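Figure 6 in text form: structure in, sequence out.
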Protein backbone atom coordinates (compact mmCIF):
# COMPACT_ATOMS: atom_id res chain seq x y z
CA UNK A 1 0.00 0.00 0.00
CA UNK A 2 1.21 3.50 -0.85
CA UNK A 3 1.90 5.84 2.06
CA UNK A 4 0.12 9.13 2.52
CA UNK A 5 2.89 11.43 3.78
CA UNK A 6 5.85 13.13 2.19
CA UNK A 7 8.35 15.70 3.39
CA UNK A 8 9.24 18.88 1.56
CA UNK A 9 11.88 21.53 2.07
CA UNK A 10 11.64 24.96 0.49
CA UNK A 11 15.38 25.38 0.13
CA UNK A 12 17.30 28.46 1.37
CA UNK A 13 17.76 29.67 -2.21
CA UNK A 14 13.98 29.75 -2.74
CA UNK A 15 13.30 31.37 0.65
CA UNK A 16 15.83 34.13 -0.17
CA UNK A 17 14.13 34.80 -3.48
CA UNK A 18 10.65 35.20 -2.00
CA UNK A 19 9.17 31.94 -3.30
CA UNK A 20 7.74 30.59 -0.02
CA UNK A 21 4.26 32.04 -0.62
CA UNK A 22 3.96 31.00 -4.29
CA UNK A 23 5.25 27.47 -3.55
CA UNK A 24 2.90 26.96 -0.58
CA UNK A 25 -0.01 28.23 -2.69
CA UNK A 26 0.71 25.57 -5.32
CA UNK A 27 1.03 22.89 -2.64
CA UNK A 28 -2.43 23.89 -1.39
CA UNK A 29 -3.88 24.02 -4.89
CA UNK A 30 -2.62 20.47 -5.49
CA UNK A 31 -4.66 19.36 -2.44
CA UNK A 32 -1.81 18.46 -0.10
CA UNK A 33 -2.65 18.99 3.54
CA UNK A 34 0.11 20.55 5.66
CA UNK A 35 0.26 18.54 8.88
CA UNK A 36 3.44 20.10 10.28
CA UNK A 37 5.60 23.04 9.27
CA UNK A 38 8.52 25.13 10.53
CA UNK A 39 11.01 27.77 9.50
CA UNK A 40 14.55 26.90 10.57
CA UNK A 41 18.18 27.19 9.61
CA UNK A 42 20.05 23.88 9.47
CA UNK A 43 23.49 23.60 10.99
CA UNK A 44 26.18 22.18 8.71
CA UNK A 45 26.02 18.93 10.71
CA UNK A 46 22.24 18.66 10.33
CA UNK A 47 22.49 19.23 6.57
CA UNK A 48 25.19 16.53 6.37
CA UNK A 49 22.98 14.11 8.25
CA UNK A 50 19.87 14.86 6.18
CA UNK A 51 21.78 14.25 2.94
CA UNK A 52 24.01 11.43 4.28
CA UNK A 53 22.68 9.22 1.48
CA UNK A 54 24.68 11.37 -0.99
CA UNK A 55 27.94 11.34 0.99
CA UNK A 56 30.88 10.79 -1.34
CA UNK A 57 29.15 12.17 -4.43
CA UNK A 58 30.87 15.07 -6.15
CA UNK A 59 28.08 17.54 -5.30
CA UNK A 60 27.73 16.54 -1.61
CA UNK A 61 29.94 19.25 -0.05
CA UNK A 62 28.38 22.06 -2.08
CA UNK A 63 24.90 20.70 -1.33
CA UNK A 64 25.54 20.74 2.42
CA UNK A 65 26.86 24.33 2.27
CA UNK A 66 23.90 25.46 0.14
CA UNK A 67 21.34 23.78 2.42
CA UNK A 68 22.78 25.38 5.57
CA UNK A 69 23.23 28.78 3.98
CA UNK A 70 20.06 30.37 5.39
CA UNK A 71 16.62 29.60 6.74
CA UNK A 72 14.40 27.08 5.01
CA UNK A 73 10.81 25.94 5.32
CA UNK A 74 10.19 22.29 6.15
CA UNK A 75 6.71 20.85 5.89
CA UNK A 76 5.12 17.45 6.29
CA UNK A 77 2.43 16.93 3.66
CA UNK A 78 -0.45 14.50 3.55
CA UNK A 79 -2.28 13.22 0.49
CA UNK A 80 -3.13 9.84 -1.00
CA UNK A 81 0.00 8.42 -2.67
CA UNK A 82 1.86 11.48 -1.35
CA UNK A 83 5.44 10.67 -2.39
CA UNK A 84 4.69 10.01 -6.05
CA UNK A 85 2.13 12.78 -6.29
CA UNK A 86 4.51 15.36 -4.82
CA UNK A 87 7.46 14.24 -6.97
CA UNK A 88 5.18 14.87 -9.93
CA UNK A 89 4.31 18.36 -8.66
CA UNK A 90 7.99 19.30 -8.15
CA UNK A 91 9.36 17.81 -11.39
CA UNK A 92 12.82 16.53 -12.30
CA UNK A 93 15.90 17.36 -10.21
CA UNK A 94 17.28 19.62 -12.94
CA UNK A 95 14.92 22.57 -13.61
CA UNK A 96 16.14 22.61 -17.22
CA UNK A 97 14.49 19.25 -17.87
CA UNK A 98 11.60 19.54 -15.38
CA UNK A 99 8.14 19.57 -16.96
CA UNK A 100 6.35 22.88 -17.53
CA UNK A 101 4.37 24.06 -14.53
CA UNK A 102 6.34 22.01 -11.98
CA UNK A 103 7.77 23.75 -8.90
CA UNK A 104 11.35 23.17 -9.98
CA UNK A 105 10.65 24.47 -13.47
CA UNK A 106 8.89 27.54 -12.10
CA UNK A 107 11.22 28.39 -9.20
CA UNK A 108 14.48 26.47 -9.64
CA UNK A 109 17.66 28.09 -10.94
CA UNK A 110 19.92 25.07 -11.48
CA UNK A 111 20.27 21.39 -10.65
CA UNK A 112 21.75 22.43 -7.31
CA UNK A 113 19.46 25.37 -6.60
CA UNK A 114 16.27 23.57 -7.54
CA UNK A 115 13.97 25.30 -5.04
CA UNK A 116 12.44 22.30 -3.24
CA UNK A 117 13.06 18.85 -1.85
CA UNK A 118 10.56 16.00 -1.95
CA UNK A 119 10.98 12.55 -0.37
CA UNK A 120 11.74 9.81 -2.89
CA UNK A 121 10.10 6.82 -1.14
CA UNK A 122 7.63 6.08 1.64
CA UNK A 123 10.50 4.77 3.75
CA UNK A 124 12.49 7.99 3.33
CA UNK A 125 9.38 10.12 3.91
CA UNK A 126 9.02 8.52 7.35
CA UNK A 127 12.73 8.85 8.09
CA UNK A 128 12.72 12.52 7.03
CA UNK A 129 9.50 13.28 8.95
CA UNK A 130 11.09 11.84 12.09
CA UNK A 131 14.27 13.82 11.44
CA UNK A 132 12.37 17.13 11.62
CA UNK A 133 9.16 16.62 13.60
CA UNK A 134 8.15 15.11 16.92
CA UNK A 135 4.67 13.62 17.30
CA UNK A 136 3.68 16.73 19.27
CA UNK A 137 4.49 18.94 16.29
CA UNK A 138 2.19 17.07 13.91
CA UNK A 139 -1.46 17.82 13.41
CA UNK A 140 -3.75 15.00 14.48
CA UNK A 141 -7.51 14.82 14.33
CA UNK A 142 -8.88 14.00 17.77
P1 LIG B 1 16.20 14.89 -5.82
O1 LIG B 1 16.23 16.14 -4.96
O2 LIG B 1 15.46 15.11 -7.12
O3 LIG B 1 15.71 13.67 -5.07
P2 LIG B 1 18.86 13.83 -5.52
O4 LIG B 1 18.35 13.13 -4.31
O5 LIG B 1 19.59 13.03 -6.54
O6 LIG B 1 17.69 14.60 -6.27
O7 LIG B 1 19.84 15.00 -5.06
C1 LIG B 1 19.59 15.76 -3.89
C2 LIG B 1 19.89 17.20 -4.18
O8 LIG B 1 21.28 17.34 -4.46
C3 LIG B 1 19.18 17.79 -5.40
O9 LIG B 1 17.87 18.20 -5.13
C4 LIG B 1 20.11 18.94 -5.75
O10 LIG B 1 19.90 20.08 -4.90
C5 LIG B 1 21.48 18.35 -5.46
N1 LIG B 1 22.05 17.73 -6.65
C6 LIG B 1 21.70 16.55 -7.22
N2 LIG B 1 22.45 16.28 -8.30
C7 LIG B 1 23.31 17.31 -8.42
C8 LIG B 1 24.37 17.64 -9.34
N3 LIG B 1 24.68 16.84 -10.35
N4 LIG B 1 25.03 18.82 -9.15
C9 LIG B 1 24.73 19.65 -8.12
N5 LIG B 1 23.75 19.40 -7.22
C10 LIG B 1 23.07 18.25 -7.37
MG1 LIG C 1 16.49 12.70 -3.41
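Output sequence:
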Amino acid sequence: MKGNITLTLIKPYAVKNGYVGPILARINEASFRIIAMKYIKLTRCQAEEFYAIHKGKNFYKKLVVFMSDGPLVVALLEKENAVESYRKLIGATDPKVAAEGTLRKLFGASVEMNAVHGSDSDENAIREANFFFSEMERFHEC
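Caption detail: The first strand starts at residue 5 and ends at 10.
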